[in-house]
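INFO  loader      accepted 1 record
INFO  loader      residues=360
INFO  predictor   begin
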Amino acid sequence: MDMAGVLNHRACGVDCTLKPPTEENRVRTLTIRKAALFLVAVLACGSLSTARDERFYFTVSSDLHGAYSRFASVCDAINRLLGGEGAFHVSIGDLSGSIGKNRAILDRYFGKTARWFPVIGNHDIENRDSLAWLRNEYENGNSARTPLKNFTKKAGPAGSSRTTYSWDYGSAHFVVLNVYWNGEPDEGAGRARGSDTSGKGDIVPALYRWLEDDLAACDMPFVFVFGHEPAFPLVRHEGNSLDANEKNRDAFWRLLETHRVTAYVCGHTHYYSARKGDARNAGNVWQICAGSGGRKSFDGLTFLRFVVESGAASLDVYRDASTRSFRKTATFDFAPRESRKTSHPEPGSLSQKPAALPIP
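INFO  predictor   done
INFO  writer      dumping tokens
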């Protein structure tokens, strides 16, 4: 492994698979945890927040598609190994066939009050029912939950106001990007297509400007940006991810470096990978590709746990690729923004083919 592209990456050889707890203990644990989360939500009047120095974790999956039994196995492993989804769960796109069915799986394992941030993917913009579900989840919670807009700090730009947004939690800032917005203001409604579903994977100038303003206003020690397509794809989708428009991709990555973003977390390839820096492994921003949380992949299934506190953050990677039993395979440590140097890659320096780092 090229150590220039890795910071404090610890491969774990210990099998972290746990024996399932008794049903009585599992239900008791989930009931106590959900009651505590509900109390926090009530006290916060619907806002998603916690003390800035409080330690918390959140979990991530990607590319669920219609593989419901496989996504259920991921959620089951999250419960058994971690005790639940954490403060919230993020799924980084390609949630179709039925997003509603995937939400029902989350309800079964994490409870109906579990906070889920679904990111739009390329297959989601092809499915009109998925479009309606994602827009409604932000606007009205699909009449079943508190709307996502009640938990966000900043809505996206006109034209992508329900599929791009940001929020703060603890000592971290979070951004969800719709990389399929074409930059125009004619956002769709219901099942109708609009500017929010008309583009190819890209960081168009209008989205760049919105993100620039959002990051400039952020004073959190850690920043996580989510988008479906990788900037530097490995294994699959090379040339038809964000790298299809190298000029916009390079500007996007320089922006992340300038504002010392902790990690850009993506999906799309159905393979887990992690790299630090640009195409030359230069820089400080991590790209974490979350693999597959449902859709069949030669790489097996993957989920991620990020742990954040005021002065430290880390990532635990859980996979079932070799044993078909989920185990922690790697851990990364992230330094807070104020302790990191800002990297300013030269224009045009990011367009080299990325070095394929070993995939742990």
